[in-house]
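User: Show me a protein chain along with its predicted structure.
Assistant: Here is one chain, sequence first, then structure tokens.
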Amino acid sequence: MDESTTSPAGFSPYEMDSLMKYFVGNNCKYREQIIIPRTVGPIHIKSIDEKRVEAAFESCAFKSLVASVMGYGLGAALGLFSASVSPNITAPDAPQQTAKEIFRDLKFSTLSYAKNFALVGLMFSAVECTIESYRGKADWKNGTYAGGITGGLIGLRAGLKPGIVGALGFAAFSTAIDYYMRH
């Protein structure tokens, strides 16, 4: 058919093609090359907003914040427990502690544990996420390296030898926990 032939509606093939594109939409097929196996169920391609939210939740800052908050809660629970079972040994002739003094000691111990656990959780999570981002792999080595760096930094406050012992100990502990959690 040439350009001058018209359809029963009175339009040329070029005009019909233009009208079809206008009413039906663009005939370019995006994502035509994507192959998604249908093993689990219907396929759902994520929108841009879903990808942004997922990226925010998977960021190192968010992971570190969550680890810090959870560390604070765990530390507070352990601090409260340890303070409640530790005996306050006073001299035989000393006056007994009042309830206010006991609660003050409980508060101090709870907050001390909570802050320390929050700091360790924050440091470990930030270092591990940074190492994972740098290496581009999610395996047991990330936790080992992060444990070594975190333990070393915490131990360095007491000196070089405690820093080395802290690095080795925390790395071994992180490796053992990671092995236990993955198997």
